[in-house]
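Service request form, structural biology core

Requester: graduate student, group of Dr. S.
Request type: structure prediction, single chain
Budget code: on file
Notes: please return the result as structure tokens.

Sequence provided:
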Amino acid sequence: MTARTPRLSRLRRLTPGRGEDGAGRSGRRRGATPKVVALGGGQGLSASLAALRRITGDLTAVVTVADDGGSSGRLREELGVLPPGDLRKALAALCGDDDWGQTWARVIQHRFQSRGELHEHAVGNLLIVALWEQLGDPVQALDLVGKLLGAQGRVLPMSAVPLELQALVKGHDPARPEDVDTVRGQATVALTPGEVLSVQVVPGDPPAVPEAVAAVLDADWVVLGPGSWFSSVIPHLLVPELLDALVETKARKVLSLNLAPQPGETEGFSPQRHLEVLARHAPKLALDVVLADQAAVPDRESLADAAKRFGAAVELAPVARQDGSPKHDPELLAAAYDRIFRMHGRIGPWR
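Core staff response, request fulfilled:
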């Protein structure tokens, strides 16, 4: 038990929905949708959110804040703010399918094309940072952007401070293939030609956003992944209070695997190797389900053995787009999540 456990207990007692009115996990009202928290960043989290908003009306995204590239990196360096890019992508993924939602999704994702300082800045990044400066509260500002967009869920940063990602990489310099170097920066780690051995964040004990911790503690399901393994998925496990919440929550947890290894940080990784490196970074983490696309698992027995280390069952389902691209299909992924929520420890008739 860590020194942070008493704080987590206090957060659990203070979290809305756990009173005597039957709204908590032990007495969920009939007809209520499950409380789902999705952790990740970038396109992987966006895919998961686009699926989850189709099956639950109680959805919270907890987003990594280690991005240091592109528009986010420039704003972070110039203004000292949290990188807004992954937060923006999550908000866009939560926009509805009506004209209002789709219009705002396109607007906040729009990037300026110019020969000046605005080149490649995303409109949503500028909007989020402007509200951060106006309100002085990143959570309140993101809630306000979500209200403007009509987002079907809430978006929270995982930490209150911008983080630097550092990785130990073997063969980062192709001229020295056996040497292990420290590689700094999310953008550099994601594209390294070497083998990523481990990652850490700086500062090493970053504060978690209290609302993110509370959401994990009060969830029925926590979804981790898909996404860039070392730069979007594992960083959540490097925020101590957030990891404590993931270990102690009574929520069931599903890990959603990627459709294919990513050039750079997971080149050549098998599905089971993704689980092995996750276990090295968070040996106390337990899971209930590992979800993978059935066509992306050549060795089902090895994946099942790796999942057993977490106490998890493996669910295989067709979740990829039919065009052959390594991207998740929102409808198919939603169907897979829906089946998992119903078959693995369902509390009541959520829909």
